[in-house]
Amino acid sequence: MTDGSRLLDQMNDRSREVFRRVVEGYLENGEPVGSRTLTRTLSEKVSAATIRNVMQDLEFLGLLNSPHVSAGRIPTQLGLRLFVDGLLEVRDLGDEDRSALDATLGSNTDDVGGFLDRVGSALSGVTQGASLVLSPKHEAPIRHIEFVSLGADRALVVLVFSDGHVENRVFTPPPGQTPSSMREAANFLNALIEGKTLTEIRRDMAAAISARRQEIDSLAAQLVESGLAVWAKDGQVPERLIVRGRANLLAQESQAEELDLIRELFDDLERKRDIAEFLELTEQGDGVRIFIGSENKLFSLSGSSLVVSPYMNADRKIIGAVGVIGPKRLNYGRIVPIVDYTAQLVGKLISDRS
Question: Which residues contact 287 (CB under 8 A, 6 or more apart)?
Answer without folding.
Answer: 310
